[in-house]
Amino acid sequence: MKINYKLKWLAALTLLPAALLYSCKKDYRSSAAPQAPASGTVSRAANEVVNAWVTTSDQSKLLQAQTSFNFAADAGTNATTVTVDENATYQSIDGFGFTLTGGSAGLLNGLGGNQAAVLNELFGTANGQIGISYLRISIGASDLSSSDFTYNQTSGDVNMNNFSISQENQDLIPILKKIIAINPSIKILGSPWTAPTWMKVNTTGNNGYTGGSLNTAYYDAYARYFVKYIQAMQAQGITIDAITPQNEPLNPYNNPSMVMQANEQANFIKNNLGPQLRNAGLNTKIIAYDHNTDRIDYPEAVLADGGANPYVDGSAFHLYSGSISALTDVHNAYPNKNVYFTEQWVGAPSNFGGDLSWHVNTLIIGATRNWSRNVLEWNLAADPNNNPHTAGGCSTCLGGITVSGTSITRNVGYYIIGHAARFVRPGAVRISSNLSGSIQNVAFKNADGSKVLIALNNGSSTVSFKVKWGAESFTYSLAAGAVATFKWSGTQSSGSGSTGAPIGTNITLKGFNNQYVSGENGTQAMNCNRATASAWETFTIVDAGGGKIALQSQGKYVSSQNGAQAITCNSATIGDWEKFDWITTTDGKVTLRGNNNNFISSENGTQPMTCTRATASGWEAFGVNQ
Fold first, then answer.
1. What is the pLDDT of residue 1?
2. Cβ neighbours, 10 Å, residue 373
3. By the number of CB atoms within 10 A of the CB, which of 86, 148, 201, 440 ranks highest?
4. Pairing status of strand 407-410 against strand 401-404
């Protein structure tokens, strides 16, 4: 965690517009949506059963199970349509959870007779439980420990003869053992806030725990420290799945903290940490960076190092500055390396509705849509005064739960993670779903074949939207700021109700002449002669029913004008002449066939477009979002 929490709060506020627009940079799939006054579901036929859980911004529903309903044969139109395609898959998912800080472990350990019930609720997967499947823990103290410590403060002990995790025997290890008994496959990531203080130079306070950097003379000793840690935890029956070499390596202000520049981390990994882990027979993943998305040059520099790269599984990120879309930049630069999201705080006192919307939209949806294999919120538990913490550590970090004696209060972080963790299990894969209107969403397919769609209405009023899956669909209404998790099983169908088009997506169409199709302000015949694309060159794909689509720009629909005259974009409603077949070509382009069975043509880009071609060739094929 960072030390300047007022600045962090301001940074979070300034991030909000950019975070809400992350999909514009990395995922163009959004469109305008009509408003709907009612809430609830529309069930039309006895096909696959859909279960739903909802949390509302006013807290009238808190991860509340709704009456189940059914998919039906797709019919009708809805401009706000989310199309789920389980045949298009992306990254695998490792899990969702929190950092189990030392303070969190101590509070959980003090729950007395209520402890078993709380731990089962947090880590179990039955009804009424949230199924946390991934934990981050600190290697030594974090700023949410009650005091500073490392596992070896014996100066000069380079062979780690005095290494000991005994400090964790009181709280962390007993709690982890109980968690593992509930979920034996839970993944655990270890991150140090600092090396032992005697290994550091140029420290700035708190008896050497704050600031400074790792003395190059102790690189080998520090790598041995990691090996001893992983082995010691293993001896307790606790598997450390992954480590990061340093929490927030560019933050010298926290207590504890340590700076580790990108070149230093690369050298440490390639010359010391990587070789020592492998020589010890340990398969623990090494994940680089573990800091904000505004400095992706850091993990990219580590991954660019030919010696470090083979040892590095991927990169980890926080979002106290930067944009969530930066995760895709790192993925694109190194597609064979994984991406993780490992920390984001909720500041006390929480604005429940605002925090719910921002975290679900930006992290649960945004991070996973940008290739992250996990999403971790910051501290799992704190007391009513946001304790414990070190001197100068975070005093306003709201836990996922608040522990007061032997009772708990569930805070917004509990519901943020709860909407994903129990339903999207480790081993799931993200599958395709488009963003549509104010319905932000992400979809997954579990190893057992079940599908999960997490949807948020980030608009200002209730929205009725369609969820389309193959040739089936359901319609649902979601209040402003509300989150819904949908889960169903079965196999995706195909047929006359399936368009094959990404319904709800905003697209551009580029002709054979490398120019864009324009709706021409809706006032004249359409042309394919624009060198750049703006509003009237952007079209939303709308489900027109019966396996057909319509194209909408600026609230008006493209019409083939009976195939008798040049096409326009000036129809207020969808009729037969505004419906098209979306046909994908072998080279990935699309053709559009009108109601007269003829194809739209860009007419060499030299005259108004028509829908008069009996066959499709170069001038009748269009590149999508090129």
1. 52
2. 21
3. 440
4. antiparallel
Give the three-class secondary structure for 263. Answer: helix
Cβ 541 vs Cβ 549: under 8 Å: yes
- Whether residue 450 contacts residue 429, with contact meaning beta carbons closer than 8 Å, is answered with no
- CA distances, 488 to each of 49, 72, 423, 451 (Å): 6, 13, 10, 5
SS3 state at 429: strand
**Pairing state between β 49-55 and 69-70:** antiparallel
pLDDT tier at 536 (50, 70, 90 boundaries)? Answer: very high
Active-site positions? 248, 343
* Cβ neighbours around 73 below 10 Å, total: 14
List Cβ neighbours of 130 (8 Å cut-off, separation of 6 or more).
63, 121, 122, 414, 417, 418, 421, 422
| The two three-digit tokens of residue 615, written as one number | 């066959």
Three-state SS at 14: helix
- Report, as an integer, the average pLDDT of 520-530: 95
Torsional sign, CA 140, 143, 146, 149: positive
DSSP state of 161: T
Dihedral angle, C-alpha 390, 395, 400, 405, nearest 10 ° = 70
CA–CA distance, 598 with 578 (Å, rounded to integer): 13
pLDDT in tens, 366-380: 999 999 999 999 999
Backbone dihedral angles phi then psi of residue 524, each to the nearest 5 degrees: -150, 175
User: Strand 381-382 vs strand 372-379: parallel, antiparallel, or unpaired?
Assistant: unpaired
User: In one letter, which amino acid is 149?
Assistant: F
| 3-class DSSP state of 448 | coil
Report the alpha-carbon distance of residue 479 to residue 417 in Å, rounded: 20
Bridge-partner residues for 69, per DSSP?
Answer: 50
pLDDT (mean) for 88-109: 96
pLDDT in tens, 7-52: 343 334 334 433 333 333 333 232 222 233 333 443 334 489 999 9
- Tell me the C-alpha distance between 374 and 133, whole Å: 9
Q: Could you write out the DSSP letters of every residue in 233-261?
A: HHHTT----EE-S-SSTT--SSSS--B--
Inter-residue contact 378 to 346 (CB < 8 Å): yes
Instruction: Write out the E strands in 21-94.
Output: 40-42, 49-55, 64-65, 69-70, 72-73, 81-92
Amino acid code (one letter) for 371: W
Q: By mean pLDDT, which of 70-74, 87-91, 437-441, 492-496 is the weakest?
A: 492-496
- Eight-class DSSP state of 68: P
Average pLDDT over residues 307-319: 98
- Which amino acid would we find at residue 542? V
CA distance 360 to 498: 29
Q: Is 508 within 8 Å of 625 (Cβ atoms)? A: yes
Confidence bin at 541 (pLDDT 50/70/90): confident
